[in-house]
Amino acid sequence: MSGMEPPEDIEARIDAINNCEYARRFDMKVTLLTAEEVRLEMPLAGNMNGFKVGHGGAVFTLADEAFALIGNLGRYPEVAMSASIRYLKPAKGDMVAIARKVSEDDRTSTYKVEIISNGELIADFEGVGFKLKGKKNK
Fold first, then answer.
1. Which residues pair with 42 in a beta bridge?
2. Given a cut of 90, is residue 2 above it in pLDDT?
3. Is 0.85 topped by the overall pTM?
C-alpha cells in the first residue's frame, strides 16, 4: 500500500474479520497491523489437543486469521483461493502468527504466515487470496 491511500472500507473489513464469532472463540489478539506485516497472538490454554500441545486445528486457525487480515489490507477485498500448512514442531506455549505478502498479480496475492511458539518456528502456512475486483473502492 505504499504511496496509496487505504480503501474507504478497510476498517469495516478488519472489524468484520476480528469480530467474527469463530475468531473470537480463540482469544486472538492483533499486536501489529501494517500493510507489510500482520502479527496475531493466541494463547495455548484452551487450544491444546489430548497430548497437551497446540491442536493442529488451532494452529491452522491462527495462521488463517493472519492470512485473512493481511489479505484484506489492500485496494480490493480478498477471499481464500487456497491454503496449506506444514507442521514442524508441536506448540508448547502461546503462539504468534507473522503474515507477509510474498507476491501479487492482477487477480491473486500469495502470503506466507509463520507460526512461532516459545521462540521456535512450529508451522509455516501459504495462502493464496483471490481479489474481488467487483468490490472496488471508489
1. 95
2. no
3. yes
